[in-house]
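# step 3/5: fold
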Amino acid sequence: MNNSDENDFLKLDFDRLWKGRENVTAVESGIIKSLLGNRHFGRILEVGAGNGRLTNNLIKYCDNYYALDKISNFLEKINIKSGIFKVACDLEFTPFRDGVFDVILMVRVLNFIENPAISIKELHRILKPGGILILSFYHTGSIADLFDIIINQRTEKNIWARRSRDKKRVKRSNFREFFFKKSYIHRILSDENLFINKAASSGLEDYLFLKKLPPAIFIKLSYFLGRSLIAPHTFFSVLNKESISDIDDDGNLFRCIKCKQSIEINQSEFNYETKCPSCGHKIIFNNGVLLP
């Protein structure tokens, strides 16, 4: 399989992928709620929202919820009629102005990105000063990671990323993935002046012999696991340490991805077309999904 076909996410069957794994969703939702302190926020952006596996559990924690994914077909399947705004675009070029989100969530996405520094830089741009970024990733060096290699015969290839063995190419499925050292992600965040204030880990609840245990057990253990090398899936709660700036938050979140000028988007429309008044770039709404 060549690289152009490896990450054809249109072939991804969410229903089949997550069938019988409700405990995983419950654990991950519980960890996110704990990391957020069960607070209420103005705007939350979920990156890699897919078909809304986590969305239904988290939408109540904010006034305005934004779901972003590369594939518009996934977003169309999110079964929420109101209170959510859907955007289909590449993560490196989002149509948002600087510093507009109180919280950004990126769960199970980082491992499909070969160069996470570029994506984290963009998330930092659109995160408010003092805002929270919660990201999760599968990391190298865990006991569960070793178990997968031995028992499941997972193939892998060490590749260079700033330091040897910071990043591993992994073949677990039909998709190209990368496992990262925690220290590698930590350096990328530090370079962006983003501060990790909490860490938690999950993933054990997805193993056959542990699936019968209640999700609450794994949620309670997640902070302990975050300080160990037992569980394979790590959550970082990250603070934007920048001081409150003079960013003008007038309620308009959007900018043209071509000319970078501020634009007004009617978020209540379902199907329509408009153009950037500055450069004429066409902006489309299709089935309630913004295609910037």
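# step 4/5: annotate
The chain has one domain: 3-253.
# step 5/5: archive (pending)
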